[in-house]
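Recap from last week: sequence in, structure out.
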Amino acid sequence: MIKAGSISKGMFLSIKNEPYVVVEREFVNPGKGSAFVRLKLKNLKTGLVNRQVIKSQESVEDIEVETRDAQYLYNDGNDFIFMDTETYEQIHIPIKAMEEKMAYLKEGETFQLIIWESTPLDIKLPYKMTFKVIEAENATKGDTVTGATKNVKIETGYTIKVPLFIKEGDTILVNTETGEYVERVN
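Predicted structure tokens:
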């Protein structure tokens, strides 16, 4: 058990026997009344996000999770298939629970899996990842008004907006939290 005032972003909590990760945390200390914590929580089984307010002196159950390195192999249409890098055991994670991660999963790459009670709950992506541009629109000459962008397709099939100078075959760095272009990589 942990006091609500000690909760921080990224912690794993059990609320009504459901696993949650803290996405956002705001501590509020009003002039009158007791302090409270405003939380934005993501249910790790359903993927739904909800908000909750807890008085800072109340306790919440924190859960111990295990992180395990696993290599992404492929998706079979229903599940992402990973291989544990230590035991070589295959781990299946339903796609519908983590559809937003699909854009960043490259075959053969190693990712960290968050596991609770032997159930994989989340795929921890690096903050930034490099991708090869496989398809790029041609930039129109004279179309260089401030911040002009175009769409490109990266190796995972995901489409992203990039500056006009990016061309097919370039390698780019992408922020996996926002899905935005960061820079071109040499």
